């Protein structure tokens, strides 16, 4: 019963906060009272507090944010009218040839079809259309508008290599699965690269992606082996993004895992979703493989005088999950929640999050947990089939130099590179 007063106090505080937000949103504000919103800091990356608050933003918060933007524009206009701010002479643009899109700006030409973007007229993002004058890639564009030094490679043949959707990541991860023999979990470091680009051209809207992850875990061995664990993941495939409507893709994943054993396996991973016109996306993702790898090794369990033989066949989990993905109000960030099952009747819950912290950096975190069964059908018991992965990475966008613009480009990779969450093994016998 001692808990009840605390619960009552929390409910009272929550209700008071809600009513305060409603009153704040309904209160009229004058531009003069919002001078702080036009400071030079509003173009800076969002603070951690604002990033966390955006995860749980309410309608009142969005109304207040809209009023702040209106007040900011009104305040600046009043300063211009009073002569405190010099107006910009735009007449110099009349002599410029063609359109001059700003970096990161998406320009749509021609009629929109059902809210879905027209790839043939897309020129957005810091790609070739944004390198006019050579300011973006350190050299001019050729007669076709292609960035010469940075996006055309000639050896021995010339071909385009757009790099605006290139990203590097590095971080830490912890994971465990049946290959841990029901003993220690694995912890280590992950590093990788992911890249996306239009497939042949921007006319049809399809993109291609290619990425790789490396992982070094159990750097000091484990309780049953002195070996460290080294992994390599490769992901390649195609996808298509839209403004709203059907969106999806298909990739091939390969994993090499070297510990007290050596395993090579592959799988197919795909997703299909409906992207709503207003906000959010609901869909389904899966992994599928029937490739098996045989293990016949010996480990020395703690307290045992003789080695234990690990002998069996392992294959990747076939996972099936529904998900909901939504953008965040922090410059291109997004998060996704997943829930589903595996072909060997395990439950599945997971989530991943990407939040920009500077113009070139973002924080990426993810977790996935396969819930083991409590019956005796699992080999070795439920604790040996428990599978989980959690990681946090720092992502660098060297070419776009804006994690926000990377979150707006239609040809950024749709899939993350495979890791120990999306690619995990279990015994088949």
TrEMBL record:
InterPro entries in the cross-refs: DUF6666 (IPR046607)
Keywords linked to the UniProt accession: Signal
Pfam families: DUF6666
Leader sequence segment: 1-20
Superkingdom assignment: Bacteria
Protein name: MetA-pathway of phenol degradation
Species assigned in the record: Bremerella volcania
Lineage start: Bacteria, Pseudomonadati, Planctomycetota, Planctomycetia, Pirellulales
């Amino acid at each position: 019963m001692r808990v009840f007063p605390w619960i009552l106090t929390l409910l009272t505080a929550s209700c008071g906060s809600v009513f305060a937000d409603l009153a704040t949103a309904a209160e009229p504000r004058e531009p003069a009272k919002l001078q702080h919103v036009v400071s030079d800091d509003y173009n800076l990356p969002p603070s951690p507090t604002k990033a966390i608050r955006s995860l749980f933003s309410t309608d009142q918060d969005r109304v207040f944010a809209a009023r702040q933007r209106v007040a900011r524009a009104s305040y600046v206009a009043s300063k211009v009218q009073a002569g405190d701010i010099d107006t910009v002479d735009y007449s110099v643009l009349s002599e410029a040839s063609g359109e001059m899109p700003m970096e990161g700006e998406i320009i749509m030409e021609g009629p929109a079809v059902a809210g879905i973007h027209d790839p043939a007229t897309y020129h957005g993002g810091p790609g070739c259309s944004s390198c006019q004058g050579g300011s973006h890639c350190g050299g001019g564009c050729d007669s076709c508008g292609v960035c010469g030094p940075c996006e055309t490679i000639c050896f021995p043949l010339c071909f385009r290599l757009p790099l605006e959707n290139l990203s590097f990541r590095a971080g830490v991860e912890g994971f465990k699965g049946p290959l841990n023999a029901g003993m220690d979990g694995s912890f280590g470091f992950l590093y990788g690269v992911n890249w996306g680009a239009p497939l042949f051209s921007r006319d049809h809207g399809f993109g291609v992606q290619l990425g790789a992850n490396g992982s070094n875990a159990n750097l000091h061995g484990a309780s049953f082996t002195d070996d460290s664990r080294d992994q390599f993941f490769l992901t390649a495939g195609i996808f298509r993004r839209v403004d709203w409507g059907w969106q999806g893709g298909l990739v091939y994943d390969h994993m090499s895992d070297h510990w007290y054993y050596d395993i090579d396996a592959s799988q197919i991973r795909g997703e299909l979703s409906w992207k709503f016109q207003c906000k959010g996306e609901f869909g389904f993702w899966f992994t599928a493989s029937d490739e098996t790898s045989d293990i016949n090794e010996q480990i020395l369990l703690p307290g045992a005088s003789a080695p234990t033989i690990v002998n069996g066949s392992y294959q990747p989990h076939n996972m099936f999950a529904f998900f909901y993905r939504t953008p965040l109000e922090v410059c291109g960030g997004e998060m996704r929640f997943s829930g589903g099952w595996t072909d060997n009747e395990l439950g599945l819950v997971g989530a991943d999050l990407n939040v920009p912290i500077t113009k070139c950096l973002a924080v990426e975190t993810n977790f996935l947990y396969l819930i083991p069964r409590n019956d005796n059908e699992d080999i070795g018991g439920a604790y040996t089939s428990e599978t989980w992965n959690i990681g946090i990475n720092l992502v660098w966008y060297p070419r776009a130099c804006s994690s926000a613009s990377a979150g707006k480009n239609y040809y950024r990779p749709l899939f993350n590179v495979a890791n120990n969450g999306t690619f995990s093994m279990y015994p088949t016998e």
